[in-house]
Amino acid sequence: MPAASQKTEHRVKRxxxxxxxxxxxxxxxxxxxxxxxxxxxxxRDAGLTPNGxxxxxxxxxxxxxxxxxxxVGAAAGELEQLEIGQAPRSADEVLEGMRxxxxxxxxxxxxxxxxxxxxxxxxxxxxKALKVQDWFATRIQELSPKELPDPKDDPAxxxxxxxVRAEIAAAVETxxxxxxxxxxxxxxxxxxxxxx
Length: 196
Known about the structure:
By secondary structure, the chain is mainly alpha-helical. The protein has helices at 9-20, 25-32, 36-45, 67-84, 91-117, 123-143, 155-178, 190-195.
């Protein structure tokens, strides 16, 4: 039986939050219970550069988040906070939450495009961001209420209306043929009916 994956949604969220606070890969690894090399891989998957520096670990200062990576990390932190929020109470709230998240993802994709253009991100990272954006767009489209078709344009409704009009016309004609005057007993509109 294969071993369960260490990469859980909770660990990734915690990793991104710690990274945004300036924690190194070793500090993050100790906090979430995985190796620091694993943290480095997960950070790169999330489009982030590990904090810290080069050289001897005990003497090098940790590199605080900042610059381009800091902005991406901050955006990821915002997404994490959005997901932690209160559970939605209705389908409308779910849809509105998805739209808000999509707006943030869209901003991250635009930022990732800028990073690719200046050589700070790879096309693989951009492709991942675009896939997330597409996923949200598809879910929003699926959850959005569909507009009801106009009954006037429905062929079945038009056919049914024609049948009803024909039945009403037949009923009127029958009533006109059988109409009788209460005084003389003759059909007062008989000549007009016969002319049709």
